[in-house]
Structure formats: structure tokens, C-alpha cells
UniProtKB/TrEMBL annotation, chains B, D:
The chain crosses the membrane at residues 24-42, 54-73, 79-100, 107-131, 176-202, 233-251, 310-329. It is found in: Cell membrane. This is ABC transporter permease. GO terms for cellular component: plasma membrane. InterPro entries: ABC_transp_permease. Keywords: Cell membrane, Membrane, Transmembrane, Transmembrane helix. It is a multi-pass membrane protein. One of its GO terms (molecular function) is transmembrane transporter activity. It comes from Rhodoferax fermentans. It holds the Pfam family BPD_transp_2. The keyword Transmembrane helix applies.
Automatic annotation (TrEMBL), chain C:
Residues 5-240, 253-495 form the ABC transporter domain. It is a peripheral membrane protein. Pfam families: ABC_tran (PF00005). Keywords: ATP-binding, Cell inner membrane, Cell membrane, Membrane, Nucleotide-binding, Repeat, Sugar transport, Translocase, Transport. SMART domains: AAA. The lineage of its organism: Bacteria, Pseudomonadati, Pseudomonadota, Betaproteobacteria, Burkholderiales. This is ABC transporter ATP-binding protein. It comes from the Bacteria. Its main location: membrane. Gene3D superfamilies: P-loop containing nucleotide triphosphate hydrolases.
Length: 295, 334, 495, 334
């Protein structure tokens, strides 16, 4: 078969989740290149949309890739650059953040951002009996963050007694989450649960609550299933950590593997493949625990 | 005192420019070395396609850096250019999208959008200039403030997500970025023109001379009948216009503006200027150096993209080492 | 306890430019030596080498018979050698006291002993006659005050060899007299003194012997008593000098005043000052340090707020809000503060010369060739000695910088020019050239205002002299009234 | 001529310090106004708890800003502090984790970690100082380079994820951040001590005087036989030590270092210094102003967190307006 040169374009490791992405991409490169001598995998990380567009160009013109797996930094911004690459005959698999024009891709593999917002909201509604005070953390202003927030809000609409007191940006960053939570605690005397929306942010939230010695918060719901949080959940070490929602960066590994193996055989992938986000609780936590991953 | 003029004159004249030229070559030498390394690491580096790719993507930062060079030479600084670019991009996309259904031809709409980009840039620059000169506020503070303001308004307009150009407009607009003239991509041509103009303005016009005089010693310039405030304001307007031009080239590339558009461009633009041999303290600077600096910075990341010898985590470290290394080759310039 | 110095074949090169070509002579301990020479002769450079501010390129320096190489001014100071710089070396953001003790702070344990430093600084500035709070930032001082701070600072160092490079260039007779008294006292204490000045009368007055330098070479030494001023001048310049002051241009009283100032008040500095100057007239401004002459004109130019007054230029009432507006109306100003306000020392000669007249060279691109031609002409006209036409202004000697500054403000062909201490630090030969030039320009119809602390210069040059005291106009003296005595008594208010 | 001195001098002198003091109050007035606004917007703002929260979280930036003040007053700049803090945090956590199983008592391990933080900070500062003075490279370039290098190495060490302190060490270490002495949290106390020391060093020691002299006019300082290179190197070392101290307080807070640790701290620290009234050009500066500046910046975001009157998207805009506004109150200082 024809030699496959597979480019992988992903965001640079700036927080836990993207750290995991980079880890799993490199892991895939290692495993797959060993298994398939006809395969070359080239991993590129970008710290912004324009940089990622540059990398696509470089992968195409210079590295002469014939397959691409891209985790777009931004959906809208990368649609055109990806379309350009596809136009040159490269097989394109888009991961996680869908392009605004689906004709620019051959296959789409993604996590489920709607579920990422919906599952926590439903879980909180259920365990809190449909009422109580909530605060939420937001990530960095992006379409993805909006999708999650909208999904969360839409569930809350059905539960008028669940009050979302405020939702501020904490940039998927532990420190910012710590500060925002401190100020929430100053401001709101009764908080029943926190939707931290990301396990990195959950770390900061927990520390802030501990510091204030507040006992009113019964649940802190993170997200994405970082290994530290999963471990805590498995061991039942923190009563506030009762559940999580899966959104494993490992899907980049799967996407690379699926694409590489399909291309080596000259096959195509199904147009869309959604890796479902599921609720993680103590019972199924072990399934989501990857001690070797940095995330 | 004509009787005994300057006997050392010939030697001095011969030597000084030569020495100056050698030192000015610091970044050029750095760039050449990098290109050699690039070719050695990946034979595809030295292709026309790759060169054009690199130059095209340098165009944005490069054009902004040309404007930044004026501001820095005059003794100022502008931290807001990245946010300004983002806000301009957002604003013109919104405007074009709003105009599209009003019966204007798409070409007309795009032209209006492009003109608006330049106008907005000039207006923002004017605001900076006025706050700095008439408001007597440090440029660092003014532009640190507007950095936050511009980006916040973009985030607000985009509701935290992306502002995307309508598809048919996008098709009309996209040649501005993707087309070539005589084999040279439009952004590269524009970059070239801006750099040439910048060089001429800085070195061959009264305004450029005033900019240098002000950066060298503002007080002396004032006593020498230079309208210091006006010249300073104009440097910021000029930079704003450059940001506008860069943005109008940028929009057709990605067709959207998001809260992360233009993030850290200010650092890249300032770095291009300083790596190009202009002093952070103002007074003297070179547009050629700035252009070389901008190209050098994108060549570094281009080479990193072309090779995989180094852990992806360490990309930034390689860039850091190269920047310091290049600076070292031209050390002790002042 | 005094210091004995011997220069042996001292050579100094700045890059390719050689400025000292093997200078050899001795400075005897305990004597006061006048070091004279044209601008750019290498006086300052030689003294910077002696005091450790510049390195020696070749040759040697012996102190009390011992060969010495100073790596820094501190090492020279350890030998008791202290230099008062021709160009100020004060940090603007620091106070008088902080500057005076910079690098020599008094400490109590880890901390600075501010109180005792301030006390000593206050004493030292009182000694030189500066009345100021030692906690004033140097930024707020006028040039003469800065000069006094420089002198006072050197006194604090308890020098055994004190080098003064043009210490009186910005001082008025009063301060100068006080300085001479101090020098006499130091001499009596056995301190060796080197006195560099272009004011030959002063050299004659205070020195025991004179060393002459020309073009980076030692020319001769002679007992001061054996030389006339005229001879000194000829030795410096290497040719016979005609009268220092050329004949005055004929005064045209009939002409309408080109500048008429009525009731000008610059709050805090000058009050209700009125005067006028006619085309072809040279009008002097005399006064003590702090009389407010500089500030009056800075107010006139819109560099300081004015609270009252009317300005008429060429018959029209004008509102000058900046030097730019003034220049457009045909009025230019040469600042007394060369480094701070007069010249861009980090720019080239050409850029400096044409800065005020760039419009003339912009079509719309600057005509660099024409600029270069203008520089060549100016270098000839004003006798600017430079190693290279492409060098920076900072590479010029003090006097040559002054000539360049002068050339710059005259370059726009103004109708009225205000020259604040125009010959500060300029050698006699060049001075006479500048005077000739001023007379020529006056003859061509230029109105010249000369602010000067050198009374003889005002007398030799001007048609009329305005005397200011404490911010007020004290008297206007006509040509036939111009004597030193008359000027001094009006300036001090003892008329 | 002693007989009639300069009549205007006394007034001028009397006026200057008074005026100076009033202008120096700019940031303080800004801070007071903000606090009034904060109290009015949310009554919880003016509580001891909230004040302590704000001060504690200001401590990191504040401590770094004190060191940054020296660097800026001396005419330099350091862009790398945020990355440096991150790398130090990562390094000491890795070291402590490695030492823990070797039989040392946890307290001992933590003490070693803390000492290492300061040592590393000093070493990084020394490297900057040497590159700048002996290597004759612009501070902007040196620290732009090391910014990338430090963060890249942290990312490399952490594999892009988090480096987390062992749990038992964390328990031993955490009082350094969370404990209080006489009701005042440790970080606030340390901040206070650092600021006081900084003030004394800048204003009452020869070193501080030299820093100001060099920033005001390097040539003059050199002429005054000040060892300019040494003093400059020491300012960077001092800043490095401050970063080390800030980091050793920071680590027990979350017990981890990630690639986002310390992101943009450089901008915040520089902004604190400049908002506090120190000139970007060097020469003169105030530690009190710096402290006020740092507190002011965190109060702004604290108030924004305590209220919801403004769209979250516009937070950065509010910060921008306040920064420019405060600067306006103290305009024309030089
Ligand atoms: N840093 C420098 N670089 C190049 N040339 C220099 C430098 N400093 C001085 N020179 C040159 O050295 C020569 C001697 O200068 P110096 O300052 O010693 O003259 P001077 O005798 O003190 O003159 P003046 O009476 O005008 O003060 C001048 O021609 C000057 O241009
Ligand atoms: N910025 C300032 N702050 C305080 N006092 C000042 C300032 N500038 C000048 N002065 C004072 O104002 C007075 C007037 O100074 P001015 O420079 O006008 O004198 P002058 O007549 O020009 O003297 P010179 O002969 O030195 O030119 C002096 O007493 C001086 O000390
Ligand atoms: Mg001299
Ligand atoms: Mg004066």
C-alpha cells in the first residue's frame, strides 16, 4: 500500500485537558509507527488559530502529508485553512471542535459538548432534588465553552428552583478558579453546589472552599475526567466529588488510530462518530482511570 | 576656521558606515544561518512554496511591526495591537454581514469592510495618541487599558464565541488573502509595499526624522520647533492604520474573529522590532531590521513545524534560544 | 601632599579617529596650570584620561613618578585626582545632595546617612554660592546652578589635583569671583589645579603657567606672567588673531522694530518686561544667574506659561504657543542648555543641523544630498571640527557642539534670533568667527538678541543691552553707556 | 554675588515636594474610590475576610512587583517572571516529591524546597543580569527568550499536565499559605515584609540609590564610579529572589504547577509598578506606589467577581477603563 504520512494538528498543552491531548497524540504516534512501518505520524501543537493554520500549510507543502487529524483550535477560524488542505487531496479527520463547513472534512470524531453541559446539570438537579443555589465556572470564551454553558442552562430551565447565582470565566485555570470561588464565597452565603466545568478548575474551587471552611457546598462537579479527580472519586476521598462527566483527551488517540489504519487499508471512516460523554460515578470510575496520562 | 580641516575625515568616513553595516547585519546573519539550518533539516524548506507560505503568514505581524517600529523609535509602546486587530476584525465582519442583505454588491460590501478596517485602526490610534499626549498618560498604561477594552468588546460582540463572515462574502473576499500576482501572494505584496513605504517615511521624510528626534530627546526636539504632540499622535495613527491593513488581510484567511484572535500579536510585533535591532529606548531604528526580525521569528516556527527532532513541549524553548542567540550576534550595538 | 603628574607620549584613539598624538608634558605639584587650546584640541580628552574616565590608547601616565593606569575614576580619586566635567554629569532624577554623594555615599551601618550627607552638601553648595535646598531634584535646576553643583561636588572629594574643565562657561562674574577665591584657598592648601577655559582673561588672572595644546599635540608651556592674552590666543590658534570683536554693523534706528514685547510676565520668573529689537540690531541681555532671562524667553516661545503681555513680530500681534509657532514667524532660539535642550547628541551632525528646516529639504522626500551640502557649508562657516561628517554629535568636543547648535538655529534664516550664551565653551578663534558672523547677519538685516553672562562679550558685540534683575527689567543701556561697571551696578541693583 | 539671591527659588522649592506628594497620591485616591464603589456595590466587600482574601492573592504579584520596581527603576524590564515562577514551582515540587521517600522528615523536605525556590530565582535572575550586562543584549529580548524557555521546560517536565505535590508534603506545606499570624495570613505578612524591605533598600541604601542613578542616567552613574553592571545584575537577582519567594508561597496554595501557572504575571507585575506611578523609562519609582498599584489591580477584579451588573464579557473592559482612569488622575507627573 501507499505510504501514509499523517499530520496531527492539536492545541499546545496549556492546561490539563490539552496536556492530555498532546500526551495521547504522542502515544498514538509511538504505538502506531511501531506497528506500521509504512506509517509516519507528525504531531504539531499550536497556541493559537493562526499558528495552527500555518502548521497546516507547512504539513501540506513541506511534509507532504496525505492524511490529517486535526483538533481545531477554533471551529470557525480553521474551516478555510482545513478546506485548503483537503482541496489538495489530503484525507481530513476533524476531532472534537466541528468545522462550520462540514464539506471541509472527510470524517468527524468528537466528544459530546452538549452532554458535557447537560449531564452535570441533570445530575445536580437529581441529587439536589430540583432545588438549591448553584454557581458555575466558565472556561475561555470560545464556541465550545458556549455550547457547554448553553446545554447546562437549558437543563436548568426545567428546574425553576435551581438557581444559578453566577457564572464567571476562570479560563480553565486552577488559580483563576480559586480566586473566583473565593469571591463567590464572600458574596453568596448559601451555595449548594458548584459546576466547575473542568477538573483543573475544580481543584481551585475545592481549595477555596476548604480555606473558607464552608460546609454548605455539598457537590463540586468538575468535568473531563482528569486522573486526579477520578482517583478521588474512586477512593471516595472527598464527599463533594460524587460524579464526573467523561470527555477524555484519549479520543485523539482513537481518532489517529482509526484514521491511520483506515488509510493504510485505503478505506474511509464514517462521516461522523461521536464519542459519547457519560456520567462517571464511583461505580464506573475505574474504566476512566489512566494513571500514565498527564491528565 | 578653514585653515586646517579635519584631516582624519577620509578614514573615519570609510570605516564608520562599514562598521555600522556589519552590526546592522546581525539579524540578517541570524536569518541566513536559520535558513541554512532549515534546508539541512528538511530539504523542502528551501522551496518557493514554503518561502511564500512563510512570507504570507509573516505579513500580518510584519505590517504591524512596521508601524510599531515608528512608535518604538519615537520612544513609545503599544500593547494593544493584538486586541485592536481582533476588534477591528470583529467589527468589519459584523458590518459586512449587516450590509450584505441590503442590496449592495458583495464586492462593494467587501470594499467598504476593508476601508472600515483602516478607518477604525486610524481612529483607535488617534485615541491612543490623544490620551498619551494631551492626557499625559504613559503609553504603557494607555495601551494596557485599551488592550483589555478592545478584547472585551470583541468578546461581548461575539457573545464569547466566534463572529463569522457570511459565506458568499467570504468567497468574494478570500482572493485578498489567497490570490497571487505574478506568483507572489497578495499579502506578501502588501507587506512589501508597507515596508518600503515605512522605510521611506522613516528615513526620507521630515516626519520620520521628527520621530527619531523625539525618541532621541523629546525636550531637544520641542526646542527645535518640532510639534512633538502632533508627531507622536501621528505615530500611533500610523500604527493603527498598519493594524487595520493587517486585519483586512487577516479576515479573508480565517473568515472569522474570536476572543483569541490576535492574542499576543503585540509581543510578536514588538519582538520583531527589537530583534531587528531597534532599541527599546527609542531614538533610532530600522525598518529593514524590523522586516528581517519578523521573518526570522516566523522562520523559527516554520522550521520547528518542518522537523520533529525536538519534543513539541520544547518549541517555545527553541524559539527562546534562537532569539537570544540572534541578539547575541549583534550585541553591544549601542 | 600634592600631586605631580607626567604625561609621556599619550595617544588616544576613538575607533579610527586619533585625537591625541603623543602628548608629553609635566604638571608640577602645587601649581595652578591653565590648559588652553582650540575646540577639539584634546584638552578634555587628556584630562579624562588623567582622571580615569577614558582609557589611554598608548603612552603612559606617571603620578609622583609612578606609572599609573586608571581603570576607573575611582582609582584616580584614590590618588586625589578629581575632574569637574565640561558637560554636566548629574542624574536629573536625583536631588542635589544625592548627586553630590553619588558613588561616595556616607553610611551608618547598612543604611545611608542622609542627614550628614545633606548637611555636608549644604555646606559645600554654600561655599560655592549656590542658594538652594539640597533636596531639590537636579531636573529643576538651571544650567548655572548645575555647574555650581558640579564644583561643589568636586570640593567634597578633597582633591589633591583638581581639574576644572570650563567651570565658568555658564557662570556670571559674581560666581566666578567666588570660585577664584576658592581656588586661591585650595592652592594655599597645596592642591594642584588645572584650569581649562576659553576665557583668557580668567586664565591670566588665576594661573601660574599656561600649557597650550593644538590638534592633539602639546605645543608649549610658559609662565602666565610672560604672556599677553593676544599671545595666548595666537599660540592656541597657530596664527595671528585680529581683534576679537569685529566692527559693529551700522545701527539702523529708523527701521520698524521686528520684535516688540510689551508687559510680558512669566509667572514666578519674569514680570512686566517690555523691549523691542530692530532689524540689523544686536540687543544684549545682561543679568546675574537667576535674573530670569532664560525663562523670559522660554515664556516668549510658549515653553512656559505666560500670564500677561503682548508680542508683536514684524508688526503683527502673534500668540506664540510653541517654538514651532515662533519658528514659523521667523523667531528661533538657541538654548543655554546644550545637552538637555540644544542638541540631539545621539543623532548625526546632519540631522541636527537641518532639524528646524526640514520642510526646505522635503520635496516631499528629504534631499539627503542637499542636507550633506548644507552640513559641509556649515562646517566651514562655523569652523566645526569633526573627525567625520557622519559622526554623532556626541563625538564633537564641547565647543564644536556649541558651534553646531548655533548653526542649527541660524539655519532657518530667521528674522529674529535669540542666542542664550552663544559662545559658551567656544575657543577665541571660533568666537571671533562667530562674532563676525553675527555682525554679518545683522548687516543683512537679522535682529539678534544675545543673552550672555560675559559682560565683555555684550559690550563688544551689542548695540544696546537690557539689564535684568530679579525677573524685572532694570535698565536699557545704549551703546555709549556700555561699560562693565555700568552693567554690574544695574545687574546687582546697586546703581 | 550674595547680596540679592533668587527670590523665586523658595517658592519653587516649597511647592515641588508638596505637589509631588499630591501627585504621588494618584493611585491611592484611585484605590480609595474603588473601595468606596466596592462597598456600595456589595456590602460584603468591606469585610475583614474579603480584605484578607484580596491581600493574600495580591501577595504573589505584589512581591514580584516589588522586585520588578527595582528592575524598572534601573531602566530594565523582565518579561519572564510568570514563566520563571511556573518553572520554579514545578522544579521544587518535583524535588520535594523526589526527596520525600528518602527518609527526610517532611518538614525538612519542605524547607529544602523553599530554599531551592529562592536559590533558583536568584540563579535565573543572575543569568538574566549576566546576559544583559556582559552579553550586551536588550533586557526585553533576553527575558522574552527566557519566557519561552522557562515555560517550555515546565511543560516538558509536566508532560503538558500538572505536577502535583505529594499529599503528606502538601499537608505539611499548606500552612505556609493558609495559616495566619495574629489574624493576618502568612502571605500578607511576607508581602508586607518584602515591601518594607524593598522600600528601605530602594530609598535608604547605596544600592537603591545606584539603581535610581542608573535608571536616570547610566553614563552619569558610570562616571560616578558606580559599578553599573554589578548593580544591574543585582536588580535582576533581587527580582529573581522575589519571584522565588512568591513561588514558595504559591506552591502550597494549590499544591501543583501546570503550564498555565503564572501566565501573564509579568504583565500584572509590570502594570502594578507603572500604575503605582513609576515611570516606564526608569530613574524614579516608589515601592509604596507599587504596592498600592498591585492591590488596586486585584481589587478591580475582586469587585467584578462580587457583582454581576456588567456582562462577564466586559470584565476586561472595566479593568481597562479603571487603569486608564487612575493614570489620568496622576497625569503629567514628569
Ligand atoms: N567619543 C568620541 N568619539 C570620537 N571622537 C571624539 C570622542 N570624544 C571626543 N572626540 C574628538 O576628540 C577631539 C578632542 O575633543 P576634546 O573634547 O578633548 O576637545 P577639547 O580640547 O576639550 O575641546 P573644547 O574646547 O571644545 O572642549 C575632538 O575632535 C572630538 O571630536
Ligand atoms: N524648574 C525650576 N524650579 C525651580 N526654580 C527654578 C527652575 N528653573 C529656574 N529656577 C529659578 O528661577 C530663577 C531664574 O532662572 P533663569 O534661568 O531665568 O536665570 P537667567 O537669568 O537665565 O540666568 P542665566 O544667566 O543662568 O541664564 C533662578 O533663581 C532659578 O533658580
Ligand atoms: Mg573640552
Ligand atoms: Mg539663563
Amino acid at each position: 500500500a501507499e505510504k501514509v504520512v499523517l499530520g496531527v494538528a492539536i492545541p499546545a498543552a496549556t492546561h490539563g485537558f490539552t496536556g492530555g491531548i498532546v500526551f495521547w497524540a504522542n502515544q498514538a504516534k509511538k504505538d502506531l509507527e511501531k506497528a506500521h512501518p509504512d506509517l509516519q505520524v507528525i504531531v504539531k501543537t499550536a497556541s493559537g488559530a493562526p499558528e495552527q493554520a500555518n502548521q497546516l500549510q507547512d504539513l501540506q507543502t513541506v511534509n507532504k502529508i496525505n492524511a490529517l487529524v486535526i483538533f481545531p483550535f477554533e471551529s470557525a477560524s480553521l474551516t478555510k485553512p482545513v478546506a485548503q488542505v483537503k482541496g489538495k487531496g489530503v484525507y481530513v479527520t476533524v476531532v472534537d471542535r466541528g468545522l462550520t463547513d462540514t464539506s471541509a472534512q472527510d470524517a468527524y470524531i468528537s466528544g459530546d459538548n452538549t452532554a458535557f453541559g447537560k449531564i452535570p446539570a441533570e445530575y445536580l438537579a437529581k441529587t439536589m432534588g430540583g432545588k438549591g443555589n448553584l454557581v458555575a465556572m466558565r472556561g475561555i470564551a470560545t464556541t465550545l465553552d458556549n455550547e457547554r454553558m448553553d446545554a447546562f442552562n437549558s437543563v436548568l430551565k426545567a428546574h425553576p428552583d435551581m438557581k444559578l447565582l453566577d457564572a464567571k470565566y476562570a479560563n480553565w485555570n486552577r488559580d483563576d478558579a480559586f480566586k473566583v470561588m473565593q469571591d463567590y464565597l464572600t458574596r453568596f452565603k448559601q451555595i449548594d453546589a458548584v459546576w466547575a466545568a473542568d477538573d483543573d478548575m475544580a481543584v481551585g474551587v475545592l481549595k477555596a472552599i476548604d480555606q473558607a471552611k464552608r460546609t454548605d457546598i455539598k457537590i463540586v462537579f468538575g468535568g473531563a475526567g482528569a486522573k486526579g479527580m477520578i482517583k478521588t472519586l474512586m477512593d471516595g476521598k472527598d464527599p463533594r466529588i460524587q460524579a464526573n462527566v467523561s470527555y477524555s483527551p484519549k479520543f485523539i488517540y482513537d481518532a489517529i488510530k482509526l484514521t491511520a489504519e483506515a488509510r493504510l487499508k485505503g478505506e474511509k471512516l464514517p462521516a461522523t462518530y461521536i464519542i459519547p460523554s457519560v456520567l462517571i460515578t464511583k461505580d464506573n470510575a475505574a474504566q476512566f482511570y489512566f494513571p500514565d496520562s498527564p491528565f | 576656521m578653514p585653515q586646517e580641516p579635519t584631516k582624519t575625515l577620509p578614514t573615519a568616513q570609510a570605516a564608520a558606515p562599514w562598521l555600522g553595516r556589519l552590526q546592522g547585519l546581525g539579524p540578517v546573519i541570524g536569518l541566513v544561518l536559520l535558513c541554512v539550518a532549515g534546508t539541512w533539516l528538511n530539504s523542502n524548506f528551501a522551496t518557493v512554496d514554503n518561502a511564500m507560505n512563510v512570507l504570507t503568514r509573516t505579513a500580518f505581524i510584519g505590517i504591524i511591526a512596521v508601524g510599531m517600529c515608528f512608535v518604538i523609535v519615537s520612544g513609545g509602546i503599544d500593547l494593544s495591537v493584538g486586541s485592536m486587530a481582533a476588534l477591528i476584525a470583529g467589527s468589519i465582519i459584523l458590518t459586512m454581514n449587516a450590509l450584505a442583505p441590503m442590496g449592495l454588491s458583495p464586492v462593494m460590501v467587501v470594499v467598504i469592510g476593508m476601508a472600515l478596517a483602516i478607518l477604525l485602526g486610524a481612529a483607535f490610534g488617534l485615541a491612543h495618541g490623544l490620551l498619551i499626549t494631551k492626557g499625559h498618560i504613559e503609553p504603557f498604561i494607555v495601551t494596557l487599558g485599551t488592550l483589555g477594552i478592545y478584547r472585551a468588546y470583541l468578546t461581548y460582540f461575539s457573545n464569547g464565541g466566534a463572529i463569522t463572515l457570511d459565506n458568499d462574502l467570504s468567497d468574494v473576499y478570500s482572493p485578498v488573502y489567497y490570490a497571487s500576482l505574478l506568483g507572489i501572494p497578495i499579502p506578501v505584496l502588501v507587506f512589501l509595499v508597507v515596508a518600503l513605504l515605512g522605510g521611506v517615511i522613516l528615513n526620507r521624510t521630515a516626519f520620520g526624522r521628527y520621530v527619531q528626534a523625539i525618541g532621541s530627546n523629546e525636550q531637544v526636539a520641542r526646542y527645535a520647533a518640532v510639534d512633538v504632540d502632533l508627531v507622536k499622535i501621528l505615530t500611533y495613527v500610523l500604527l493603527g492604520v498598519c493594524v487595520g491593513i493587517a486585519t483586512l488581510l487577516y479576515v479573508p484567511r480565517l473568515g472569522s474573529a474570536t476572543p483569541t484572535t490576535g492574542l499576543l500579536w503585540e509581543l510578536e510585533a514588538i519582538a520583531a522590532v527589537i530583534v531587528g535591532g531597534t532599541s527599546f529606548k527609542g531614538g533610532a531604528g530600522s525598518i529593514t531590521g524590523t522586516v528581517v526580525g519578523a521573518v526570522l521569528l516566523s522562520v523559527i516556527s516554520n522550521i520547528l513545524n518542518l522537523t520533529s527532532i525536538i519534543s513539541v513541549y520544547l518549541n517555545a524553548a527553541v524559539q527562546g534560544f534562537v532569539i537570544v542567540g540572534v541578539a547575541f550576534t549583534q550585541r553591544g550595538r549601542r | 601632599m600634592s600631586v605631580d603628574v607626567e604625561f609621556d607620549q599619550v595617544v588616544k584613539q576613538f575607533g579610527p579617529v586619533q585625537v591625541l598624538h603623543g602628548v608629553s608634558f609635566k604638571l608640577q605639584a602645587g601649581r595652578t596650570v591653565g590648559l588652553i587650546g582650540e575646540n577639539g584640541a584634546g584638552k578634555s580628552t587628556l584630562m579624562k584620561i588623567l582622571s580615569g574616565f577614558e582609557s589611554i590608547s598608548s603612552g603612559s601616565l606617571r603620578i609622583n613618578g609612578q606609572p599609573m593606569v586608571f581603570a576607573s575614576s575611582r582609582q584616580a580619586e584614590e590618588q586625589g585626582i578629581v575632574l569637574i566635567h565640561q558637560e554636566f554629569s548629574l542624574a536629573d532624577d536625583l536631588t542635589i545632595a544625592q548627586n553630590m554623594f553619588l558613588g561616595h555615599e556616607k553610611k551608618r551601618g547598612w543604611l545611608l546617612d542622609e542627614a550628614s550627607m545633606q548637611a555636608e552638601a549644604a555646606q559645600a553648595i554654600a561655599q560655592v554660592g549656590l542658594q538652594a535646598d539640597v533636596n531639590t531634584r537636579v531636573r529643576h535646576l538651571i544650567v548655572a546652578e548645575k555647574q555650581l553643583v558640579e564644583i561643589a561636588r568636586a570640593l567634597l572629594r578633597r582633591a589633591r589635583l583638581l581639574i576644572m574643565d570650563e567651570p565658568t562657561a555658564t557662570l556670571t562674574p559674581g560666581e566666578t569671583k567666588r570660585l577664584f577665591a576658592l581656588m586661591a584657598q585650595l592652592k594655599a592648601d597645596g592642591v594642584t589645579l588645572v584650569y581649562i577655559s576659553h576665557k583668557l582673561d580668567e586664565v591670566q588672572q588665576v594661573t601660574d603657567e599656561v600649557v597650550v595644546m593644538r590638534d592633539g599635540q602639546f605645543v608649549t608651556r610658559e609662565d602666565t606672567a610672560k604672556l599677553t592674552r593676544q599671545q595666548m590666543a595666537s599660540l592656541m590658534v597657530g596664527r595671528e588673531l585680529a581683534n576679537l570683536y569685529p566692527p559693529k554693523a551700522p545701527h539702523l534706528p529708523s527701521a520698524k522694530p521686528v520684535l516688540k514685547v510689551t508687559g510680558l510676565t512669566v509667572p514666578g520668573w519674569a514680570e512686566d518686561v517690555s523691549f523691542e529689537v530692530h532689524p540689523g540690531e544686536i540687543l544684549g541681555f545682561a543679568g546675574l544667574v537667576g535674573a530670569g532671562r532664560t525663562e523670559l524667553f522660554e515664556g516668549l516661545l510658549g515653553l512656559r506659561p505666560r500670564s500677561a503681555g503682548q508680542i508683536e513680530l514684524q508688526g503683527r500681534v502673534v500668540d506664540l504657543r510653541s517654538p514651532r509657532a515662533a519658528a514659523q514667524q521667523g523667531l528661533t532660539y538657541l538654548s543655554e542648555d546644550r545637552k538637555g535642550k540644544g542638541l540631539h547628541v545621539n543623532l548625526g551632525l546632519r540631522e541636527n543641523l537641518t532639524l528646524m528646516t526640514l520642510q526646505r529639504y522635503a520635496h516631499p522626500l528629504l534631499d539627503i544630498t542637499a542636507e550633506k551640502a548644507a552640513l559641509t557649508t556649515a562646517v566651514d562657516d562655523y569652523g566645526i571640527r569633526t573627525g567625520s561628517l557622519t559622526s554623532l554629535a556626541s563625538a564633537l568636543s564641547g565647543g564644536n557642539q556649541q558651534k553646531l547648535a548655533l548653526a542649527k538655529v541660524l539655519h532657518p534664516n530667521p528674522k529674529v534670533v535669540v542666542l542664550d550664551e552663544p559662545t559658551r565653551g567656544v575657543d577665541v578663534g571660533a568666537k571671533s568667527d562667530i562674532y563676525t558672523l553675527i555682525q554679518r547677519l545683522a548687516r543683512e538685516g537679522l535682529a539678534v538678541i544675545v543673552i550672555s553672562s560675559e559682560l565683555l562679550e555684550l559690550i563688544g558685540l551689542c548695540h544696546r543691552v537690557v539689564v535684568m534683575r530679579n525677573g524685572r527689567l532694570q535698565a536699557v543701556l545704549e551703546e555709549n553707556q556700555l561699560t562693565e561697571q555700568e552693567l554690574i551696578t544695574h545687574a546687582t541693583g546697586t546703581h
